[in-house]
């Protein structure tokens, strides 16, 4: 039976999504099968539409409808600040927080010599060009506070040093609402060493 | 920006799937955006194909490519046994365990006066017809070992009593409160092989 095979293939494809496994993929597909007209077919259509529309911004690496993303295209976002993030997910997190008014640069990962990920793979040359041409005054390194993220931040900072642009990084410390008892040693050490006047 | 809105809508649609929330839906969509050609577009196509193909078997309620599902259409499955399940997920669980050679009847839920779910909503009349016309010798009630499942099993058993067909239920072995879809193959096999007269 072809349909049963297609359903199996659909479950397998869903199970490959991060956060889903075979069991949750089955449940999701069954849910969709029961709501074919108002869920399954619209979801298929939306995926197809997004898949056909979506591009990578040639300037910053964000998702875009055309060559340039909405943030790079918005004049008011050109305030001289560029926030460098690893991933589009991090850009979305910053935008959700609604705390940053400048532009972004999405590296697309972290440096990893073992995995053959070098500076060209991470849009670092493009970042150097932007600093030279976009009137950038400050580069904010908002990379993850992981070893890879911080190694990459160091590399980017060193690369941009000759341009004379101001380079800053997100503060490390105890998250708002965080309880000391739940923090790891590294977080406590960072929070203590960059303590501020009360 | 249209694309960003479409992406938001896609995330919302994914977040409505059981087992996913806003956060995992975002991660899944980002994953798909990064693998547009080998993941996103094929998944969209597969969903659309399944959505257009899939029907409900007019005989048993299983998913089907046409009017009648593959199990109802297979001569060798007509062995005089019908296994009554609540849901297609339970039918899949039985088929995965590969312990039952007969046909199924998918009720599509459990009786629930509070939610206005009556016998007609559960394909119970259709089950009575099948007993009368399909040469059925045994009805195996494989409903979930929940209060609703067992209430429904009692009702079905009482409805079928006048037909004189043998009515059995899965053996204890399925833990009280457990759901078929969560059981391992061995448990299902044991429960089926020591089924008891109802
Ligand atoms: Zn951009
Ligand atoms: Zn059928």
TrEMBL record, chains A, B:
CDD domains: TOPRIM_recR
Alphabetized GO MF terms: DNA binding; zinc ion binding
Zinc finger (C4-type): 57-72
Keyword Nucleus set for record: no
Key words, A-Z: DNA damage, DNA recombination, DNA repair, Metal-binding, Zinc, Zinc-finger
Residues covered by the Toprim domain: 80-175
One Pfam family recorded for the sequence: RecR_HhH
Gene Ontology BP term (one): DNA repair
Domain of life: Bacteria
Record keyword rRNA-binding present: no
InterPro entries registered for this protein in UniProt: DNA_Rcmb_RecR (IPR000093), Rcmb_RecR (IPR023627), Rcmb_RecR_Znf (IPR015967), TOPRIM_dom (IPR006171), TOPRIM_RecR (IPR034137)
Function: May play a role in DNA repair. It seems to be involved in an RecBC-independent recombinational process of DNA repair. It may act with RecF and RecO.
HAMAP family: RecR (MF_00017)
Family: Belongs to the RecR family.
The protein, known as: Recombination protein RecR
């Amino acid at each position: 039976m072809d349909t049963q095979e297609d359903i199996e293939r659909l479950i397998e494809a869903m199970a490959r999504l991060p956060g889903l496994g075979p069991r949750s993929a089955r449940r999701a597909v069954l849910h969709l099968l029961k709501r074919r007209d108002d869920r399954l077919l619209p979801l298929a259509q939306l995926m197809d539409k997004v898949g056909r529309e979506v591009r990578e911004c040639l300037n910053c690496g964000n998702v875009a409808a055309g060559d340039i993303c909405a943030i790079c295209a918005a004049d008011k976002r050109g305030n001289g600040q560029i926030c460098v993030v690893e991933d589009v997910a991090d850009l979305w997190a910053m935008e959700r927080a609604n705390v940053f008014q400048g532009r972004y640069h999405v590296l697309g990962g972290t440096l990893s010599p073992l995995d053959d990920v070098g500076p060209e793979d991470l849009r670092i040359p493009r970042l150097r060009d932007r600093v030279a041409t976009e009137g950038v005054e400050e580069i904010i390194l908002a990379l993850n506070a992981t070893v890879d993220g911080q190694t990459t931040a160091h590399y980017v900072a060193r690369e941009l040093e000759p341009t004379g642009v101001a380079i800053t990084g997100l503060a490390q410390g105890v998250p708002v609402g965080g309880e000391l008892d739940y923090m790891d040693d590294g977080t406590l050490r960072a929070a203590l060493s960059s303590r501020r006047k009360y």
